[in-house]
Amino acid sequence: MIKRLTWPLMVILCAALVLTACGQSGNKGTNGGTSGGESKDADAPKPVTLSILSWNNEQEMKPVLDGFKAKYPHISFDFSFAPPVTDYIAKLQTMLLSDTAPDIFIIAAENRNEIIDGGFAMDLTDQPFMSVMLDSNKPMLSKNGRTYGFTQTGWAGGLFYNKQLFEQAGIEKLPETWDEFVEICLKLKEAGIRPLYDRMHDITIIHSAMFGANVLTKDPDFDEKLFNGETTFAEGWTEVLKMWKEDLIDNEILTPDMIGLTSEQVMNEFSLGNVAMVPGGPWNISTIEATNPDIEFEIMPIPGKEPGNKYYNGAPGVGFAINSKTKHKEEALLFLEYLSTEEGLRQFEEGTGGIITAHGYTTNVHPAYLPAYNDGLMAGRIYLPMVSWARHQEALRNQFLIAIQDMAMNKITPEEAVELLDKKLQEMENK
User: Fold this and answer.
1) Both 64 and 127 in a single domain?
2) Residue 313: what are its φ and ψ, rounded to 5°?
3) Are residues 71 and 127 in the same domain?
4) What are 126-164's pLDDT values in tens digits?
5) Which of 12, 166, 223, 302 is the most exposed place for a label (fewest CB within 10 A)?
6) Positive or negative CA dihedral for 91, 383, 203, 56?
7) Global pTM?
C-alpha cells in the first residue's frame, strides 16, 4: 500500500521540479521574461552610506536616525560627533580644508561666514522642506538672500521673575515700558527685596533684548547697515547703554559685586527667593524647580521705551547643511526633508530636547517658558548680536564685555563705551 501511494507522489514531484527548472532557465535566458521577485531586486535602490558630523551625540540623535533608516532602509549612516562649539568648529574646518568633510554637517553663527563664503554648503533656498522653517530663522544661515542650512529649533532668554515676590511688593502687572520696568525694580527695592541679578559677564540677555526693543523695532536692518559702513555703534547703542547705566547702575539695581557671581549662585539665589528677577532661559528651568519645587515663576521680556516694543534675547538653532561636494545629494536631501516632517521633528525633540520652532508643529514647552516661546521665538522677536553681526564677532564681543564691566564700575561713560566699540570694529576691518 505504501509503495502504491508513494509512486504517484513521486511522479507529481518530479513534474513540478521540471517545470520549475524550465521556468528558472527561461528567466535567466536573454529572451526570457523576468519574475516579479527579480524585478523588485532590480528596481531596489542601491545601498548608500551618508556621513554626518553631528553637534548632538549619537544617543541624542538615535530617534531621528532610527526613524529615517526605517523609512529608507537602503540608507545607513557613518556617524561622528564633536562637542560644540569650539571643538566642533575646529574639527569641521580641518575636514573642509582637507576635502574630507562629511555629506551632512552643522552650520552655526560661529562658522557660517567661512562655510558660505568658501562654497562648502549647498544652496537649500528652493527646497520644498524649507517652507517649514521660520522666516526669522533664515538670516543666520543666509547670505545675499540665499539660505544654506535648515534649522527647526531655536531658543530665547528673558527675565525669570518670582510671582510671590512680585505680589509681596504689591506689583500687580508686568511692565509694558522700560520706565515701568525701572519702577518695578525700585518698588521691589523699597520692599526690601533684591530686584535683579545680572553677572555682566557677556553681552547679556538684558543688553541684547534692550537693543532689540529700542533699535530693531525701528530699524530691523541696523546690523547690516553697521557692517556695510552706513552707520556706527554709537548711533545704535548709545541710548541703550545710557538707559542701562543711568537706570540700573546709578540706581544700584545692578551693582559691581555681581560681576564675580557664577551662574549657579545666581540661579540658587533666585530659586530660594532671595532675588526677584534673573536673566535665564529654558536650560535653567529644571535646576530652579529641583532647588525649590514650590516656587511660582515665569519668564518675561525686556520692554522698550515705547509700549509694545518687547524683546527677548535668543537665536535660531544651528542648521543642518549639505556638503556642496557630496556624492549623495539625493539621499542627503531626503534626510533634511525627513527632519522637517512631523515624525522627524517629534523624534528630534525627543532625542535632543530641542525647542522646535517649525511651522505647523506644537512643541512641548514648560508653562513658565510659554511667553518666550509664543511671543519671542515664534514671533521672531529675539536678538543675539553674535548671530546678527556679519564679522569679527569674538573681538567685538570681548570689547563689549570690557565696556559693560567698566561702565558698571564707573570707569567709563556709555559714550566712551560705544566709541571703543566703533574703534574696535575699524581696527578689525583694517586688518
Assistant:
1) yes
2) -80, 145
3) yes
4) 999 999 999 989 999 999 999 999 999 999 999 999 999
5) 12
6) negative
7) 0.81
